[in-house]
Every structure is written in C-alpha cells, then in structure tokens.
C-alpha cells in the first residue's frame, strides 16, 4: 500500500520527540551532542546555521550517518545525542525517523531554523 507524505510525517513525529529551543540549547551545553542542519546548501548559505551544526542535506543523510558508507561523516556517532533542524520541521522529523531506524537512539527534532536560531549563537 502506498504511503503519503502526511502519513510519513505522522510516523516520524510519533517516533522522534519534538523539543524546544531551550531544551536544545541545554543539550548542547551538556556536551556529546551533534546538531544537524538538514537543509540544502543554498538555504544555509542564504540564512546561516547554528554555530557548530553540521550541514548534511536530507538526501545525503543516510550516507553520512552510516559508518560503513564511503561518505561517512565521523561527527555521526551513535553514542551522541542528535538534534535535527530544517526550515520548518518536516525534513528534520523525517531525518530523525531515519536515524532512529539506523540505530541512533537519542534523536530529537527542534523543528525549524527560525524557531530556535535565537536560542543559540549563530
């Protein structure tokens, strides 16, 4: 049976906890946290990103997160807390579900860049 984007987002939002910008900032201060911006490069270039965030476009996430991939990014470590964001929260929700499916356990969606960029230094 085919699945719609709405159904995919519902499943992602059920699997990945949504956190506030304040909670995200506290997790970052606590350490051992990876912040991932899943927006495309032109979006990041136009609007900036959270300081210390790794930009991995949604389409490359699987390749960067999988240690067996030749494109693996060493910043991805399953022992870390992972906080994701995008422009409005949809891509970061889907990305979070994907990471959970890949075995990452501590994954959170803070939503859109504009929703929390003021809570932490850009």
From TrEMBL:
Domain of life: Bacteria
Ranges for domain Rhodanese: 29-121
Membrane-spanning segments: none
Matching Pfam families: Rhodanese
Entries under Gene3D superfamilies matching the protein: Rhodanese-like domain
GO function terms (MF aspect): thiosulfate-cyanide sulfurtransferase activity
Entries under SMART domains matching the protein: RHOD
Protein name: Rhodanese-like domain-containing protein
Origin species: Bradyrhizobium hipponense
């Amino acid at each position: 049976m085919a699945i719609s984007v709405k159904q995919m987002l519902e499943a992602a939002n059920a699997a990945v906890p949504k956190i506030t910008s304040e909670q995200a900032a506290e997790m970052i201060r606590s350490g051992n946290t990876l912040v991932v911006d899943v927006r495309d490069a032109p979006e990041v270039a136009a609007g900036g990103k959270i300081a210390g965030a790794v930009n991995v476009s949604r389409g490359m996430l699987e390749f960067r997160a999988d240690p067996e991939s030749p494109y693996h990014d060493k910043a991805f470590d399953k022992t870390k807390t992972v906080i994701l964001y995008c422009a409005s929260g949809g891509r970061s929700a889907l990305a979070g579900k994907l990471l959970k499916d890949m075995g990452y356990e501590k994954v959170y969606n803070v939503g859109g860049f504009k929703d929390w960029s003021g809570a932490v230094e850009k």
